[in-house]
Amino acid sequence: MRLLLKAVLGLLVLGVIGILGYAIFSDLPAPKRPVELPVTAK
Fold first, then answer.
1. Rounded CA gap, 9 and 28, in Å?
2. What whole-number distance in Å separates Cα of residue 33 and Cα of residue 25?
3. Whole-angstrom Cα distance, residue 38 to residue 31?
4. Total structural domains in the chain?
5. pLDDT number for residue 15
6. Where do the H-state alpha helices sit in the chain?
7. Is residue 10 part of a domain?
8. Does the pTM of the predicted model rise above 0.70?
9. Measured distance CA(23)–CA(19) in Å, rounded
10. For residues 12 and 6, what is the distance between their CA atoms, to the nearest angstrom?
11. Residue 41: inside a domain, yes or no?
12. What does the pLDDT look like over 10-34, one tens digit per residue?
């Protein structure tokens, strides 16, 4: 019973850490870099 309680508590802690990480890093903007495309006249 004690092992089951430790497992559930461990999963709960990992879940909270995961939710916090998602909340923090989901607001980061995507990296931007300039893109230059050549224009050809027909």
1. 30
2. 20
3. 22
4. 1
5. 97
6. 2-25
7. yes
8. no
9. 6
10. 10
11. no
12. 999 999 999 999 988 887 787 889 9
Query: How many alpha carbons fall within 13 Å on the CB side of residue 4?
Result: 1
Residue indicated by tokens 């999963």? 11
Candidates 15, 18, 34; CA nearest to 26 is: 18
Q: Which two tokens stand for residue 31?
A: 């990296």
How long a stretch of residues is the chain?
42
Question: In the 8-state DSSP scheme, what is residue 14?
Answer: H
| Structural domain for 7, as ranges | 1-26
As a whole number of angstroms, the distance between CA 42 and CA 32 comes to 31
Dig out the tokens for 34 from the structure.
């300039």
Instruction: Write down the residue that tokens 């089951």 correspond to.
Output: 4
Which tokens in the block code for residue 6? Answer: 């430790």
